[in-house]
Each structure stands twice: as C-alpha cells, then as structure tokens.
Amino acid sequence: MNVLFLCTGNSCRSLMGEAIFNHLAPEGWRAISAGSKPLGRLNSGAVALLEQEGISTEGYYSKSWNDLPLTPDIVLSVCGNAANETCPVYLGGALRSHWGVEDPAHAEGTEEEIKAAFMTAYRILRHRIEQFLALPLDELKDARERLKAELDRLGNLLP
C-alpha cells in the first residue's frame, strides 16, 4: 500500500510524515510526500530533527503532487489551521483523511521555542503513524470503510 502525505509546500510536515512512516513501516507499505505548491527545498529544521531522531532523509525532495512516482492508495493531508492554510484536496480514487498538524516552519520566538514547535509536530505525526501501523493492516487494507474510520480517528490523536 502506498501512502501519500500531502500539504502545500512539501518541505516540512509532509516530509516528516513520509520519513517517519518509511522508517517504521512494515514490508509492503510505503510513504511518499508531495505538495500542491512545493517549495522545491526541504526545511532544514525538519531535516535536522529527523536526523537527530535517527531517521534518514536521503533521497527525499520537495515535489509536486503532479509528479508522483506512484499512485497512492491512501492520502493523508497534514495542513494545519492556525495560519489559515488552504489544504490541497487530492481528487484521485485514494482513501483520504485529514491529519492536521500546525506548521513549525512558521513558528516564531526563541530558538528553543522554534525547536519545540518542530518537536511537537514530529511527536504528533509519529504518534499517529505508530497508531496507524499498530492497526490490523492485513484486515483493513481490503475494508475501505473501516480503514477510513480508523484514519479519521487517528487524525485527532495527540501524544
């Protein structure tokens, strides 16, 4: 199964989702990320945090949802609400769910406060992904309605 983490810029939250998911996923499950208006570069704060957590970002890049190397089975949008973001809506036949996370790339304050914003986003995404991967995936991959309900439930979880 292919999971797409989708946001606008594809430099921070969707990248973290892709990297965390691929780091933890069982064989046969793969994540990619994309944006509706990709920035063309990865956020250095997100990359540094992932590397600090032992998660590789090698080979990852900011890309458009128009240039996906595969067709997703599941699309998880990760746009937040605080910055009045317009979250892209994937129109393909994939199962869709919203896992809103505030964008740490827009955090302001001291260096510690900004790092804390990145860590908060990381923890939320990691917790949701861990809970996702703890589901009975073999049962759910062919039960779209049940999987959709679980994904929607997970999109509201906080660590």
UniProtKB/TrEMBL annotation:
Domain of life: Bacteria
Domain (Phosphotyrosine protein phosphatase I): residue spans on this chain: 1-135
Keyword vocabulary terms for this entry: Arsenical resistance
CDD domains for this protein: LMWP_ArsC
Record GO biological process: response to arsenic-containing substance
Annotated PANTHER family: ARSENATE REDUCTASE
Protein's name according to its UniProt entry: Low molecular weight phosphatase family protein
Organism of origin: Methylovulum psychrotolerans
Lineage: Bacteria, Pseudomonadati, Pseudomonadota, Gammaproteobacteria, Methylococcales
